Amino acid sequence: MNIRPALAGLVLSVLLTPVAMAQSTNYPMTIENCGRMLRLDAAPQKVVSLGQAMHEILYALDLGDRMVGTAVWLGPVKEQYAAANAAVPRIADEAPSFESVISSKPTLVLSEFEWHVGPQGAVGTREQFADVGIQTYIAPMDCTRKDNSSGGNGRRVEPFTMDQVYQAITELSQIFDVQDRGKALVTGLREREALAVASVAKARDIPVLVWFTSPEMDMDASVAGTNGAPQYILSKLNARNVVTSDEEWPWVGWEVLAKSNPAVIVLAGMDRRFNVGDDPQKKIDFLTSDPVTSQMSAVKARQYFVMRAESMNPSMRTVDGIELLAEKMLDYGLAE
Questions:
Q1: Model-level pTM?
Q2: Number of domains in the chain
Q3: Is the pLDDT of residue 100 over 60?
């Protein structure tokens, strides 16, 4: 069953529905961001964005003309943002150097992850940027109820919720004085989420495995734990994560995963090829040929599918993930 036509109609109705005028930003403005006070004397005119979730929020707020550079990409930009993105220089596909960022002469740098801009920033610390007169904003999705002190992916101490994404949209709309756009965007995302949830209201405790990657196909798999965006998707749709670790992406062996016997397996799709398991087709080949995994209920019933990895990161695309899993649950007869 395809719920996309209904969603398209919903999005159109949101865009056409009058939204109460939001209050304009009074500059100078001060906002607390991930433990640091951010003060802006005017709406930023030159911005570098690090991380695809941040790029796409700016494009959705129609702020592409403020962007002077992007970096840290997981895959292609969404089609509706392609034209705006084509006009923005790409500094790097992965983490850029500090020098390449400041050479774009931004007044504000946005970062999806503290791993890139933070105490142990791979690009630079917030202090380094401040020393050259550049403000920094970190996505609330990466610092709210999350411990990044150990570096890398960090560890969530409480589960992610979409409220963190809505906070980022709201704060960025205030920073750029486009509150009306931010309010409409959040309203549309909330309504899409609610429609997808309602479509599978009859589902009950559907066991699901979300597989992100593996260094080699027969090695432990990086799978979704109970505190990240995939867990949020599952919880909204009355599905149960077969992995009970509170780590965001724990490594788990296939003997253990096979015994959990999920009814559905979600495979991350991405353009990068750091690991053999980044390729979703290699995941499918392994599942269907391995003597252990091929006996799992989801594999026997061919109830596995590819979801873009961007939807598995805390972002607006997490709503895309909710919609896609809801559709698949209906297609598999698991929500009747």
A1: 0.90
A2: 2
A3: yes
- Tell me the one-letter amino acid at 106: P
90 Cα distance to chain centroid: 20
The span from the CA of 274 to the CA of 222, in Å, is 13
- Cα dist. 224→154, 206, 233, 251, 298 in Å? 14, 15, 11, 9, 17
For residue range 148-187, what is the model confidence (pLDDT) as tens digits? 777 666 788 899 999 999 999 999 999 999 999 999 999 9
pLDDT of residue 9: 53
13: in domain? no
Q: How many CA atoms lie within 13 A of 320 on its CB side?
A: 14
Q: Quickly tell me which residue has 């607390």 as its tokens.
A: 32
Whether residues 151 and 179 share a domain: the answer is: yes
- 162 within domain boundaries: yes
Q: What rounded mean pLDDT belongs to the chain? A: 93
For residue 241, the Cα-to-chain-centroid distance in whole angstroms is: 18
pLDDT of residue 239: 98
The answer to whether residues 173 and 67 touch, using CB atoms and an 8 Å cutoff, is no
